[in-house]
Amino acid sequence: MNGKNISEVIKLKRRLYIELLRLVKTGKLAEEISNLSQKMITKDSPRYRCCEFKERAIFDQRIKAVMGFNIASNKDKSLKELAKSLPRQGKKRNIVEVIDTACDSCPIDKYLVTDACRNCVAHKCVNVCPVNAIVIIQNKAYIDQDKCVECGKCAGACSYNAILENQRPCSRACELDAISSDSNRQAKIDREKCVSCGSCITACPFGAITETGDLIQVALELFSEKNSLAAMLAPSFVGQFGYQQSPAKIKYGLKKLGFEEVKEVAAGAEITAAAESKELKEKIMEEETLLSSCCPAFKRMVLNEFESLSRLISNTDSPMAVTAQKIKNENNKLKTIFIGPCTAKKEEALQNENVDYVLTFEELLALFTAHNINLAEIEEAEKLEDAGVLGRQFAYAGGLQKSLRELVKVDYKSKQIDGLGRLKKELYLIKAKKNNYNFLEGMACTGGCIGGPSAMISKGAAKKLVQNFAESN
Amino acid sequence: MPKNTLKICIGTPCHLMGASELLELINELDQNLRDKIELKTSHCIDDCCEQAPVAEFNGRIYQDLNPEKLYKIIRDNIR
């Protein structure tokens, strides 16, 4: 919850989760799903677009994403048709997607000519514009916004810096420049660059960028009671499910919800740390640098943009992968569900055969709510003590670095950086061999996982709670 | 003894809709204002979970809150 407020967009999404889950619970998903947008968006509900019909059209797209379907590739399929095809086989899909009907093609995002324009003789802006969108009107350059393709050449060309770039919230939030605009000026995601970090989803005030999820699939599995499910709680889960709701109570709540097993991913993190410490010792001997691999967004960025550095990424499996493997080894019939604050983990899970589904904290809370399980009213608890401090402190930035310090006794230098933009700069330094350390802990989100896009409480509070929990075992 | 009572629901539906932000707001209140309020938490206020998050200030129930709304309610109704 990176200092952001829970906006109407987020509330609407969470209400939708609850309504869909209630339909699953009553077994009426396919039957009622086509009427849901009509039920939830009435003539009198707050409206942000031209009419309630457009609101509903957008809402229907959102429903598709919540059910785990890509919007663009399922444009022609009805909600009913899609609902009937659940549970879906196969895992291929995009995690982050633009709802094109919701994207407002942000008019604020154009290039603006300010009063600094002198109507100079050179007219570099007019000359450089590839689509002839700039004309001179009343002694000033004027950009025809219908023609403008937002290439930015005019702003670069102007000798007076008179042309202002007014960036969209989504592309400003994306530190990897993965968002551009298409010919209709709608947001477009470059799949070669996107690491599914989720920043754009949080940033868009129209809620026009969304994530596809496993929530409905998991609910169907839970309600069908044919399958046994294992919940894997990310190390950052402490405190995320409500004020003073203890880990032991959350474990009890998950069992009540129908999960057969509840495991801490921190237990896998301990195994990851041990394996990574061995790799690190080798790298120290070789005078090389090891890059951490537990943050999937950071790892993906290295693979996408720094191919020559990919050999430096730790080969150790992520805590999620290790935990899932362990569960499957013990009982192959269990389906594994990772629960965390992260959209990039959804992407990682698509590539991992041992992880069946991923839920975010907010998705799990919606599941509790739809099931009328109020954690605050539960008195019972079930002890959760799968891991110690070395695994549990993975939840915050610097935790992994600290665990490795414990495990690697030799003297070495290491560095910890959070935030994709800062990491990218650092990787350039490593590429040029201008770094003086043997280990880089890279976390895409500021503050580490506790600062993830689906975190429910502030980073500061979360860190304290994780630390207390870590020291309790 | 503070003259005002604020009860914030920390039940799961309210937490999902932002109860933690309301609690944070109270922690960040001006000390003058904070000293006048006794903060309590509740597991559920009046069963109005559909209108979460919910809080009760000096006996009156307020629904569909956010930190800004709650701040105004406190400022306008404080004794």
Summarize the structure.
The complex is a heterodimer of chains A (473) and B (79). By secondary structure, chain A is an alpha/beta fold.
Structure description:
The complex is a heterodimer of chains A (473) and B (79). By secondary structure, chain A is α/β, with parallel strands linked by helices. Chain A is 40% helix and 12% strand. Chain A has 20 helices and 15 strands. Chain A is globular and about 75 Å long. The model of chain A has no long low-confidence stretch (mean pLDDT 91). Chain B has 79 residues and is α+β, with helices and mostly antiparallel strands. A four-stranded mixed β-sheet of chain B has the order 2-1-3-4, with helices on one face. Chain B starts with a strand and ends with a helix. At the A-B interface, helix 16 of A face helix 1 and helix 2 of B.
Summarize the SSE layout with pairings.
The complex is a heterodimer of chains A (473) and B (79).
Chain A: H1 8-26, H2 29-32, H3 36-40, H4 52-66, H5 79-84, E1 96-98, E2 111-113, H6 124-128, E3 134-137, E4 140-143, H7 153-157, E5 163-165, H8 169-173, E6 179-181, E7 187-189, H9 199-203, E8 209-211, H10 215-224, E9 229-233, H11 247-257, E10 261-264, H12 265-286, E11 290-291, H13 296-305, H14 319-330, E12 335-340, H15 344-350, E13 357-360, H16 361-370, H17 389-392, H18 399-407, E14 414-418, H19 420-431, E15 439-443, H20 459-471
Chain B: E1 4-9, H1 12-16, H2 19-27, H3 31-34, E2 37-42, E3 55-57, E4 60-62, H4 67-77
Parallel strand pairs in B: 1-2
Antiparallel strand pairs in B: 1-3, 3-4
